[in-house]
Amino acid sequence: MTQGGRLGTVLGLFLVAVGLVVWAVYGLLGPGVPGGVVDFTTTQSAGQPVNLTVQTVGAIGFGSHPTWVSYLVKDPKSGKWLHTTTWKLPANTVVHMTIDQYDSGSPLRNQEWGQVMGTPGNTATLNGKSFKVYDSNSGGGVGHTFTIPTLNVSIPLISVVGTPCGQAPCHFNSPHNIESFSFKTPGPGTYNWQCFVPCGLGYLFGNGGPMSTQNYMGGELEVVN
Ligand SMILES: [Cu+2]
């Protein structure tokens, strides 16, 4: 083999090794590859409620749009945070949803989005305390909503107090609010969900960027039998 050939082989092997290290570190520590579907249909016996946990962050911190606001979902099998907003759920089943909200907020342009809708009694809990409506002119306001328009489900996500977590996935040592509520899935079909607070900073009226991109501020519920 010529010296150039040997150099090429060594360089090639070196790049493969670097690639493997990056892949291993990302796989172990990182929140996974964006996209895909997280399956909640096999994590409990038929007819039993589904537990679905997500987090909202002010900046995802990785990928092609590190500064964008985003949702992440906790994989029910591995417990890892995944950057995926398409969730497969069983039909006609109660979903107990928990949102760990790590982002700041502001007063709402439309106070209607401060209401809890579509849950039993139109209530949700904020850090263990039941509420029906949040006055977004108090505290730090509202950061996002979790809204499923076709099911009339909507929950305001209340601003954290203090310096928000800088890089996802966030952990409980950063300021956060824990909100929980339940809703029932309808029959099979695809149901979009999204945030209704224009939180796409730097975009026209806040509605571009993460607000209109899958895996950031919106996604799909794939409801199946
Ligand atoms: Cu949002």
Task: Tell me what you see in this structure.
The chain has 225 residues and is mostly beta strands. It has two domains: 1-30; 35-224, Sandwich (Immunoglobulin-like), CATH 2.60.40. Helix content is 12%, strand content 31%. The protein has one helix and 13 strands. The strands form three sheets. A seven-stranded mixed β-sheet has the order 4-3-2-6-11-7-8, with no helix packed on it. It has a four-stranded mixed β-sheet with strand order 1-5-13-12, with no helix packed on it. A hairpin with a 2-residue loop joins β7 (124-126) and β8. The chain starts with a helix and ends with a strand. Residues 20-32 have low confidence and may be disordered. Bound molecules: copper (II) ion (CU).
- Oligomeric state, counting identical vs distinct chains: single chain
Let me know the largest β-sheet: 7 strands, mixed
**At CATH's second level, what is the architecture of the largest domain?**
Sandwich
The helix/strand series, from N terminus to C terminus, equals HEEEEEEEEEEEEE
The side-by-side strand order for the widest beta sheet comes to: 4-3-2-6-11-7-8
Shape field:
globular
**Strand element count:** 13
The CATH class label of the largest domain is: Mainly Beta
Q: Can you tell me the CATH superfamily of the largest domain? A: Cupredoxins -  blue copper proteins
